[in-house]
Amino acid sequence: MLPKEVLRKIRRIEITTSKLVTDFLSGQYESVFKGRGIEFDEVREYQPGDEIRSIDWNVTARMGSPFVKKYVEERQLTVMILLDASSSSGFGTTKRFKKELAAEVSAVLAFAATQNNDRVGLIIFTDRIEKFVPPRKGLAHVLRVVREALYFTPKGKGTDIASALKYLDSVTSRRAVTFVISDFFAKDFKKPLSIANKKHDVVALTITDPREANMPDAGIIELIDAETDTPYMIDTSSAKVRERYARKAAEMKDARTTLFGSVGVDHIDISTDRPYLEEFIKFFRMRKRRT
Question: How far out from the chain centre does Cα 114 lie?
Answer without folding.
Answer: 14
